[in-house]
Amino acid sequence: MKEISKSMLVAASESARLLVVSREPSALGSLWAIGEANAWAMEITGSGCEALERVQSGSRPDLVLLDLARGDADGMYTLRWLRRVRPEVPVVLLAHADDHQQKLEAMRLGAHDYLLQPIAKPELEAALRRHLAAAPEGIDSEMTSEKFEQVGEDMYFVAASAVMRKLRAQAELLAQVDVPLLIVGEDGSGKEATARLIHKLSVRSGFRFRKVNCAALPGDLLEQELFGYEPGAFPGAMKSRAGKFELSEKGTLLLDDITEMPADLQAKLLQVLQDKQFVRLGGDARLDVRIIAATNGNLEQALAEKKLREDLYYRLSAFTVHVPALRQRKDEIPLLLGHGMNQLARRYGLPTRTFSPAVLEACQAHAWPGNLRELENFVKRYLVMGDDEELALRELKRGSELLSERVRVAPETSPGAGEEAVESQESTSGLRSLVQSVKGETERNAIAVALEQTHWNRKAAARLLKVSYRTLLYKIQQYHMSPPSNHLPPPVLHQGTKGNGDGH
Fold it and tell me: At the topology level of CATH, where does 6-134 sit?
């Protein structure tokens, strides 16, 4: 495999900045000698709290060396928070006892290496140089922490492109609006990560985020999963069980693949959204949960085929987020490849591999129909294939031939031919789309109030709103508004009197 040139690796390591967390004089002496020999900038702290303060206040190390002192219970806490604050920075642990459980916990939390003291200087230096040189070519370690935001275990929201930065800003605003939300995007594009980001930025972040895949369960089981049940609610129900609505109390519930939810259950969900309470099979309870729905399908087609109720769609879609496909943000691909390689190498306990210019070029040219999920699978195969770069390139090309044809043809032949273009346009408009959504909701509410005050006399409502009658009719149609079921027609007037202003 073509590797990054040795001179480039030497240059990268010679300009490296190391943050050392240690109170052991013997360890510090060896490290100072190694740092001076390699012209590394060494920053020393005596505690994990001080290291975290420095990182959060702007220090940008290329590697953190964490010396786990004997009896120091805060070492794992420091590691956990370093991985949250700077997930892309390698953390190497120095341990003074061969503790197998501690090693497993350290690797689970994201440590890049676990070295046992005493360790000879050449071995320590080689390990440090190896981890400093592990980042793929073309990835700036200073910018990665600003682009990656951890939103769950092994899940990150990446905002390295203009379109994703706008989505990040949109999510930050939507986090402050405690209403239902609809997220639209292709499979693997990052809908769950977006939902988790909105939850993380909201006042509900201190409570649970839960997810239910509506396509994974048949209707009766899905209803039990969402609403729970009481003993005797159905044959075999021996004890009560809380559903996801109840378990998500004060938090956020993501309903993935909402178009796969059965119609009768969609009606119950609509009732939950309207009444802010739900009925457990055999009981009832109040609801304080933010509902986020997600779909990967063509909404127009789903509505036409009655896979999604129109009234539920309008309830959910007052605020809609469109997550762009990976092919619409290709400038993120090198960063995603490097991050994925580091994450997977730690997960499987394998040394990281570098991406040659040929592989990076092929990845940039690939259509990625499977989006982030496909990219992760590619990195996983690349990691375990060893040095067979040609095989990786062939697999990528074969995947492109099999899958990207669908991406090229879909805009011309699918029923929702313009949907992808609309999604791209809306995602790039970012905050403007959000403002328009808020304006639309306000406008609809004002019209509803005017119609209610005038008992659905549309001409009177138009005068009250100071708009033309034609404009009001258009808006009523646009917002799919209709008189309430108990609405009575205006009384019949005596001959010779003026009409009621509505043409009756």
Answer: Rossmann fold (3.40.50)
In angstroms, the CA 20 to CA 46 distance is: 8
Whether the CB-CB separation of 129 and 13 falls below 8 Å is answered with yes
Residues 6 or more apart whose Cβ sits within 8 Å of residue 157: 148, 149, 151, 168, 171, 190, 193, 194, 196, 197
Asked if residues 45 and 105 have their Cβ atoms less than 8 Å apart, the reply is no
Spatial CB neighbours of 123, under 8 Å, sequence gap ≥ 6:
115
> What residues does each domain of the chain span?
6-134, 178-318, 330-413, 430-504
Burial letters 271-293, b for 16+ CB under 10 A, else e: ebbeeeebebbeeebebebbbbb
CATH topology of domain 178-318: Rossmann fold (3.40.50)
Q: Do domains 6-134 and 178-318 have the same CATH topology?
A: yes
What single DSSP character describes residue 48? Answer: H
Cα gap 349→345, rounded to integer Å? 6
Q: How far apart are CA 136 and CA 339, in angstroms?
A: 9
Q: List the one residue out of 456, 464, 461 whose CA is nearest residue 489.
A: 456
Q: Per the confidence metrics, is the pTM higher than 0.70?
A: no
Residue 357 tokens read as 């210019």
CATH 1.10.8.60 applies to domain 330-413? yes
Residues 383-399 have pLDDT tens digits of: 877 656 777 777 777 65
- Do β-strands 91-95 and 113-116 pair in parallel, antiparallel, or remain unpaired? parallel
Q: How confident is the model at residue 70, as a pLDDT?
A: 63
Amino acid making up residue 55: V
Q: Which helix (H) or strand (E) holds 277?
A: strand 277-278
Phi-psi region of 137 (alpha: psi -120 to 50; beta: other; left: phi over 0): beta
Given a cut of 70, whether residue 333 has pLDDT beyond it is yes
Q: Which fold has domain 430-504?
A: Arc Repressor Mutant, subunit A (1.10.10)
In angstroms, the CA 504 to CA 501 distance is 7
Question: 231 in helix, strand or coil?
Answer: coil
